[in-house]
Amino acid sequence: MAPPLLVLIVWSLAAVLLVSGALKLGRSAETLRSLAELRVPQLLRRRWFAEVVPFAELGVGLALLLAPTPAFTVAALSASALFAVFFGLTLGVVARGESVVCACFGVRSTRPIDSLAVVRNGLLLAGAVAATVGAREGAVPGMLAFGLVDWTVFFAAVALLLAIAVTVLLVRRSRATSAPRSLSSTASAAAPSAATESWPVPDLEVTDATGRAVELATVARDRPVLLLLLSAECTPCGVVADHVPEWRDQLGDAVEIAVLTSETPEAFRRRYPQLDARMLFGYRSLIAATGIAGVPSALLLGTDRRVAAGPAQGLDDVIGLTEAVVSVLPSRDSRTVSSSHRE
Q1: Which of 65, 178, 296, 334 has the smallest number of CB atoms closer than 10 Å to its CB?
Q2: Helix count (H) and strand count (E) of the chain?
Q3: CATH code for the structural domain at 181-342
Q4: What are the TM regions of this chain, as residue ranges (predicted)?
């Protein structure tokens, strides 16, 4: 392997660890919850350990960049150990068929762990092993010895890596749920039409705040409902919950926001004491029926007992779906004027 490519591998490993560590700083509660969801041994599910993890990642990342010959080997071995643990944990989640959103990159971790996460961690582990075997010093000292050919190879490899990263990002964004194109002229009495074909609301029941069973298809009886699937143990779910007041103001009376969770009412209220939205309980049956990978997720329910848009899965897609619904609604001012004219 050419030295410039090995240096690029070390840079990539360091960047992942530095970003991961930085995004975990000050978020020990989320990291602690993630440790439990990933089934880390009980002995390590401690606040102090959750607080140490980001500093360990930052330290190893910096050492990969700057360490001289003797210390670099220790740093590379440490990186190999970290990525081996990450690989094992994500592989375990996928093998068990569980839906877990890890706090790998703090609040930016929005998607459930899947086979792509396992592949990513496997590649990082392979890169760390290659760095341990082939490199003798940090990436920065190694670059100081580059000649013209080395720099050419290095920047060509960087360009290729960036192109791959952008392609992957665009492909993932292309999976985002298409937004509804328009709302019916009868406003809240009609279901939104979707850019993709709608599908029937699953035939199942959820529970309302009083404990009464409610048919899911009747939740949007009078107007479309943006149904948010949230958990009390999910960091991105908290971001979605923080957006609810803003979204409710933007959607007005045209679309109602409802939250569906499988937490107990008490646990959910403790986690989101300020959340003011219609509450429904029992999302696990919906996830099982639809194949939704995890939370946060969202569905746009129409009054015709059909899902008009969704499911949107992950923080970015949920925000994107909601913004798309808002974009096809009349402006707040025009809705107010129209309402006053009808009166």
Answers
A1: 334
A2: 12, 10
A3: 3.40.30.10
A4: 6-27, 48-66, 72-95, 116-136, 148-171
Is 0.85 topped by the overall pTM? no
User: Tokens 């690029």 label which residue?
Assistant: 8
Lowest model confidence (mean pLDDT) among 14-28, 112-126, 145-159, 262-276: 262-276
Q: CB count, 10 Å around CB of 240?
A: 25
Q: Where are the domains of the chain?
A: 3-174, 181-342
* Range from 44-48, 245-249, 336-340 that averages highest in pLDDT: 245-249
Q: Degrees (nearest 5) of the Cα angle 12, 13, 14?
A: 90
In this structure, the dihedral spanned by the alpha carbons of residues 58, 316, 261 and 114, taken in order and rounded to 10 degrees, is -60
Radius of gyration of the chain (CA): 24
Between 216 and 193, residue with greater pLDDT: 216
Amino acid identity for residue 116 in this structure: L
Report the distance separating Cα 234 and Cα 242, nearest Å.
Answer: 13
- Encoded tokens for 119: 């592949």
Grade residue 191 by pLDDT with cuts at 50, 70 and 90: very low
